[in-house]
Backbone:
């Protein structure tokens, strides 16, 4: 009899974090990553809060956890911040940090984080790079069912649980029959990034030291943030960037601009746009000069990263019995809805990026999925691999909690339609007024009554 084994498809943040949890608890596993080892990933920022910390605490050893925390940016008096809402004329409407119930977060470079997570797994020889997952099948080994994962190069691997952590374009999601991820084709999402030296930092608005900026204007939305790591002893609210001592190689900025496709008449597809940065600048030509400076930052670099266009996707909430429903609709296909195939992160609950909770919820998943996998591994240690019924019970327990938690954030992040409010008009004035009146009241009630 072989050991209990977990196969993870996808070596992104969630897949790598879960793999660390299995490694640190002595569970046999194999992580399959589509990209090659030397593939250059886009190092955009990600903002992490309490949900991600729960995942780190569950899956990482103390020193691993501390190494990640040391990489968080500190660009304000408190490292955990929330965005501020601005009009397109750079008038502040509401600082969401002042809302005690708004989820706060800190910035870290996505690729730096992933490297920290993958390193121990790779060192232990548990990663297979360049493995493009194609499909799985359920096989019989004696009295026990197992899952066989197949890859584009003709190879395969057998395990007791297959975990799909392969993102919003998940093939595992498609294979298992859930297919609840839908494209959001109403907008094009442009992403920019770059390094942040002293000379650039001095040109950017001082507001960015306090936290990210969000703008909603006539169907478009802009998110802008930077990450600067400062020693804890140094003041965070310095007036002049030149007086700050920070590692320029660790400092970066990031922005995302969602543009409604209906407002673009010149191009049928974003692939036709030769200069994407200039296209974005032309789109915001009537916005305040501060925004032109923000989007232009880094454009002078010869090796400046190209502005990237990301596909927008979001998931529809499945019922707690979605597996049973699929099996009833396709009774002759045992692979569909099978309880030995589990889903994690964007592979089941892809969400819009405006609340910054996609990665957070994916890593929260790791904290909740790990105990169930450890329990199944303990069953195997008794001398017999867990039955499909035992696997199904564990899977159901994991999914019921995950679905309720994560899809609440899918809804808060905009659901299946891109938010198209306009804060440049009357609505902006209403939000500003409510912020002046209600935010102090809510904060007082929060202090008096607690959570």
Residues:
């Amino acid at each position: 009899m072989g050991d209990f084994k977990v196969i993870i498809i996808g070596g992104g943040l969630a897949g790598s974090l879960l793999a660390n949890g299995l490694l640190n608890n002595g569970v046999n596993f194999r992580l399959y990553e589509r990209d090659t080892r030397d593939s250059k990933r886009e190092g955009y920022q990600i903002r992490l809060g309490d949900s991600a910390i729960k995942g780190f605490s569950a899956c990482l050893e103390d020193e691993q956890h501390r190494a990640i925390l040391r990489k968080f940016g500190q660009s304000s008096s408190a490292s955990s911040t929330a965005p501020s809402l601005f009009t397109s004329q750079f008038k502040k409407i509401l600082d969401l940090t002042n809302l005690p119930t708004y989820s706060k977060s800190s910035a870290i470079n996505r690729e730096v984080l992933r490297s920290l997570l993958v390193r121990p797994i790779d060192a232990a020889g548990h990663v297979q790079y360049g493995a493009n997952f194609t499909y799985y099948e359920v096989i019989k080994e004696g009295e026990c069912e197992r899952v066989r994962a197949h890859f584009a190069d003709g190879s395969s691997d057998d395990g007791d649980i297959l975990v799909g952590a392969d993102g919003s374009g998940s093939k595992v999601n498609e294979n298992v029959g859930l297919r609840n991820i839908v494209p959001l084709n109403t907008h094009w999402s442009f992403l920019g990034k770059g390094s942040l030296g002293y000379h650039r930092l001095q040109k950017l608005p001082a507001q960015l030291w306090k936290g990210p900026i969000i703008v909603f204007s006539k169907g478009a939305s802009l998110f802008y943030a930077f990450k600067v790591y400062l020693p804890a002893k140094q003041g965070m609210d310095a007036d002049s960037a030149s007086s700050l001592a920070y590692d320029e190689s660790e400092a970066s900025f990031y922005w995302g601009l969602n543009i409604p496709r209906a407002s673009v008449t010149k191009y049928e597809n974003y692939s036709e746009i030769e200069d994407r940065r200039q296209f974005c600048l032309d789109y915001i030509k009537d916005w305040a000069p501060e925004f032109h400076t923000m989007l232009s930052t880094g454009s002078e670099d010869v090796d400046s990263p190209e502005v990237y266009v990301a596909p927008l996707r979001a998931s529809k909430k499945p019922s707690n019995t979605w597996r049973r429903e699929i099996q009833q609709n396709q009774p002759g296909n045992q692979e569909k809805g099978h309880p030995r195939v589990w889903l994690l992160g964007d592979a089941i609950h892809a969400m819009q990026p405006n609340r910054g909770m996609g990665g957070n919820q994916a890593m929260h998943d790791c904290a909740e999925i790990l105990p169930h996998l450890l329990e199944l591994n303990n069953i195997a240690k008794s001398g017999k691999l867990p039955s499909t019924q035992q696997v199904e019970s564990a899977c159901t327990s994991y999914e019921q909690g995950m679905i309720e938690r994560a899809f609440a954030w899918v809804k808060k992040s905009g659901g299946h339609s891109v938010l198209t409010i306009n804060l440049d008009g009357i609505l902006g004035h209403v939000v500003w007024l409510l912020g002046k009146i209600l935010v102090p009241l809510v904060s007082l009630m929060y202090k008096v009554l607690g959570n």
Summary: The first helix runs from residue 13 to 24. The chain has 13 helices and 19 strands. Confidence is low (pLDDT under 50) at residues 232-242. The first strand starts at residue 5 and ends at 9.
